C-alpha cells in the first residue's frame, strides 16, 4: 500500500511533517502536491518513530493462546520491535535454539533474537561462530565479579575483529563499596574493548544503541527505513500546544505501514513479525564510538 501522511506534528524538529509510505517503508517526505497516492490528513496528531525495546526470554513468547494480552501490552507502549533473549549454556545449543525459535515463535511485531550466555563459554571460537552467523548482539552474564578475570578477553577481541558484534554485560548485584568499585572498573575496561549497549533509557533503546545493534535507521527513524511510527492525538486546538505527555499511550501504532493498534482496537497477526537479523548490512556505528 502506498500513501501519504500529511501535517503531523514532529516534536523533534518542532514542525509539521509529510511522509510517504511505499511498500512498507518510508521513501519520501515533504513534496506531495503532484502525487496521486492516497493522502491522510494527520493534522492534530503528533508523530514519532516506533520504539525498540529489550524484552524477556524468547521462550516466554512462544505461541500460546493467552499471549495476545502480553503482545497488546507491549504494543500499547508504542513498541514495534523487541529484543528477545535466547538463553544457551553450551555453544552447540546456538544452532538448535535458532531452529526451535523459527518453529515456535509467532510474533505480531518485529524482533531480534539475542543469545544470552554465561561468561564461562565465551571463547574466541564461540565468538567466531557468532561473527560467522552475523549475530549483531550478545548478552554475557556473570554470576560473580571473579568470573570476569577468567574470560580470555584479548582473544575474544581478536575474534570480533572488524565485525559488528555488540555486547550486553550483566553483572551480579554488588553490595559493598569495594565490589562497586571493581564492577565500575570492569565496565570501563570492557567498554574500552567492545561496543557495549548501556541501555541508558532502561529497556527502551535510544538512537545510539540502535546504531550499535545495527538496526538504525531501518528502525527508529522517520527519515528512511521501515514505516514504523506512532500517532498521538491531541484535543488542543492550537497545534503549537501538541506537546508530549508523560506516559501517554499512542492512539495509533503502525508496523511497516500497517495499523496494528487504533484506539482500543488491536489488529494482531502472527504473520506480521519479522526477524531483524542482519537487516542493515555494513551496520552504522554511532559517531561517538569512532
Annotation keywords:
29% strand, Urease, subunit C, domain 1, alpha/beta, 5-stranded mixed β-sheet, 290 residues, single chain, 6 helices
Quick rundown:
The protein is of the alpha/beta class and 290 residues long. The protein has helices spanning 67-76, 93-104, 124-132, 153-160, 177-193, 207-213; strands at residues 3-10, 15-22, 25-29, 38-41, 45-49, 51-57, 79-87, 110-118, 137-141, 166-170, 195-196, 225-226, 229-233, 252-255, 258-262, 265-266. The strands form three sheets. It has a six-stranded parallel β-sheet with strand order 6-7-8-9-10-11, with helices on both faces.
Provide an overview of this structure.
The chain is of the alpha/beta class and 290 residues long. The protein folds into 2 domains: 91 residues, Urease, subunit C, domain 1, CATH 2.30.40; 164 residues. The chain is 22% helix and 29% strand. It has 6 helices and 16 strands. Helix 1 links the parallel strand 6 and strand 7. The longest helix is centred in the middle third of the chain and has 17 residues. It is elongated and about 60 Å long. The C terminus is likely disordered.
Q: How confident overall, as mean pLDDT?
A: 88
Radius of gyration of CA atoms, rounded to a whole number = 21 Å
* Count of β-strands: 16
How much helix, percentage-wise, in residues?
10-25%
Amino acid at each position: 500500500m502506498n500513501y501519504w501522511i500529511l501535517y503531523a506534528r514532529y516534536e523533534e524538529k518542532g514542525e509539521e511533517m509529510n511522509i510517504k509510505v511505499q511498500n512498507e517503508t518510508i521513501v519520501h517526505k515533504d513534496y506531495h502536491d503532484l502525487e496521486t497516492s492516497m493522502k491522510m490528513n494527520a493534522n492534530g496528531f503528533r508523530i514519532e518513530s516506533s520504539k525498540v525495546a529489550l524484552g524477556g526470554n524468547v521462550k516466554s513468547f512462544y505461541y500460546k493462546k493467552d499471549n495476545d494480552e502480553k503482545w497488546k501490552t507491549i504494543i500499547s507502549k508504542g513498541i514495534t520491535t523487541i529484543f528477545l533473549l535466547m538463553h544457551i549454556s553450551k555453544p552447540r545449543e546456538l544452532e538448535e535454539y535458532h531452529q526451535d525459535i523459527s518453529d515456535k515463535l509467532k510474533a505480531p511485531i518485529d524482533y531480534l533474537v539475542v543469545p544470552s550466555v554465561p561468561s564461562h563459554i565465551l571463547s574466541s571460537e564461540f565468538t567466531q561462530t557468532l561473527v560467522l552467523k552475523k549475530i549483531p548482539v550478545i548478552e554475557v552474564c556473570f554470576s560473580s565479579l571473579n568470573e570476569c578475570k577468567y574470560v580470555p578477553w584479548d582473544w575474544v577481541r581478536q575474534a570480533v575483529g572488524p565485525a559488528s558484534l555488540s555486547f550486553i554485560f550483566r553483572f551480579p548485584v554488588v553490595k559493598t563499596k569495594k565490589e562497586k568499585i571493581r564492577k565500575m572498573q570492569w565496565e570501563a575496561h570492557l567498554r574500552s574493548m567492545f561496543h557495549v549497549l548501556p541501555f541508558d533509557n532502561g529497556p527502551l533503546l535510544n538512537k545510539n544503541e540502535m546504531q550499535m545493534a545495527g538496526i538504525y535507521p531501518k528502525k527508529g527513524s522517520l527519515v528512511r527505513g521501515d514505516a514504523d511510527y506512532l500517532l498521538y492525538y491531541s484535543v488542543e486546538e492550537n497545534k503549537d500546544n501538541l506537546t508530549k505527555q508523560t506516559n501517554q499511550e499512542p492512539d495509533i501504532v503502525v508496523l511497516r505501514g500497517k495499523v496494528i493498534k487504533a484506539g482500543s482496537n488491536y489488529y494482531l497477526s502472527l504473520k506480521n513479525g519479522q526477524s531483524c537479523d542482519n537487516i542493515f548490512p555494513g551496520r552504522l556505528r554511532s559517531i561517538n564510538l569512532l
